[in-house]
Amino acid sequence: MRLRQIMWIKLSKEFVKVSVEPKDVVMKTDPVFLIRIDFIDGLLHESIELFCEKA
Prior knowledge:
It is a single chain. The chain has one helix spanning 3-14; strands at residues 17-27, 33-41, 47-53. With 55 residues, it is an alpha+beta fold. A hairpin with a 5-residue loop joins strand 1 and strand 2.
């Protein structure tokens, strides 16, 4: 397992509520970007977006 996946599993199980599971999305820009995106609920019930560009 990659370190990023291990960290995500630990984070999602112990600290935060995951509102949208990680998924791959294509951003329709020029040039097109592939990203991995997910959302968590913060401690103050705010929605936090996490994403990274897929190379």
